[in-house]
Amino acid sequence: MARRILIGVLLGGLGCTANTSRLEQHSREQAAAAAAEAIAAVPEPVRHTAPLPPAPEGIDAALWQDIGWFPGDVTDISGFVGRESQYLARWLESSLVPEVPACAPLVAGVERTYQAHQSGGAVATNVLYGAMTRAQERVCMDAALAGMGAKGEQRGPLTILSAEGQETRMAWIGREHGTAVVLAGDAPITSWMDPQGTLSPALLRLVAAVERREGTWSVGLRDVGTAFTGVASTGYSLRVEPMGRPGKPLLEAVARIEYASPEQAKQAEQGATEFTRELVGAEDPGIAFEVRLGGSALTIVARGTPSADAAALTAWMGRVQAAMQARLGG
């Protein structure tokens, strides 16, 4: 629109005096002014001004600024490092942006992403950092939602998307070192707008210990051991290398699962060995598993390039999920 207005102004200056052209120009200028007013009226994020305590040992200052304010009932955190690992932003780039180019600046602004589970929750909260602005969000929503039969409302620091009776809520939070956009999971969004408590020392110990370079890392206190090994765990960490690296396997992941005692870890080793044998089964998926026991922890390494086509691999993953669900008694 700005380009058309500029052309119209230039033509007017060169002596184009037709009434129709002037009326069109005036209409476009009015539309541009209305759009500018709408953007100027975009509400500001809620500001967090309380200083953080010093970063715990083993956690660098930049990461601490990103996660140190998370609510105290967070039990699990995942970090996505590097643009190739910004899966939500990359999905939007490939699915939304080609259809709605106006959303490109908003999506391109995403630099870092975290996911957090809170106590008793099943759906994670996403926390996005970057150069995104609420004005970009307004432009994107105006361009994208009308054709989808959906609505988008900026209400104070909240953004509320609604369609077919369902709502998705986001909170824009101004931090000292940048803006965070919180996409609600199944925990109340208000618990992030005014976070209470501090992250547990047990969780922070796992964060400090996990490898956090390029790729994806996850740590948590939820019981993941039962699904994989048949024995309840007390903590875990997971490291997934970036996919598509030249000369490297497509999948390379290392999980460390902690147990209450060496005896439980030994029992879990047997369960993990049996489970990985089931995963491979008669249909070799092209992924090799290695199980290692060390004290009260079990390390499981998965490495390889899937040999099946997409449909067969999807079917194999479905069988994996079914086997895990069976171990959970569901």
Short description:
With 330 residues, the chain is an alpha+beta fold. It is 37% helix and 27% strand.
Write structural notes for this entry.
The protein has three domains: 1-28; 44-197, no CATH class; 223-330, 2-Layer Sandwich (Gyrase A, domain 2), CATH 3.30.1360. The chain is 37% helix and 27% strand. It is built from eleven helices and 13 strands. Strands 1, 2, 3, 4, 5, 6, 7, 8, 9, 10, 11, 12 and 13 form a 13-stranded mixed sheet that branches. Strand 3 (110-118) and strand 4 (125-130) form a beta hairpin. The chain is globular, with a radius of gyration of 25 Å.
Topology of helices and strands:
Layout lengths: L1 H12 L5 H22 L5 E2 L13 H7 L6 E8 L5 H9 L8 H5 L1 E9 L6 E6 L3 H11 L6 E5 L2 E6 L2 E10 L2 E6 L6 H4 L7 H9 L5 E6 L4 H5 L5 E6 L10 E8 L3 H19 L6 E8 L2 E8 L5 H18 L3
Parallel strand pairs: 1-7
Antiparallel strand pairs: 2-3, 2-9, 3-4, 4-8, 5-6, 6-7, 7-8, 9-10, 10-11, 11-13, 12-13
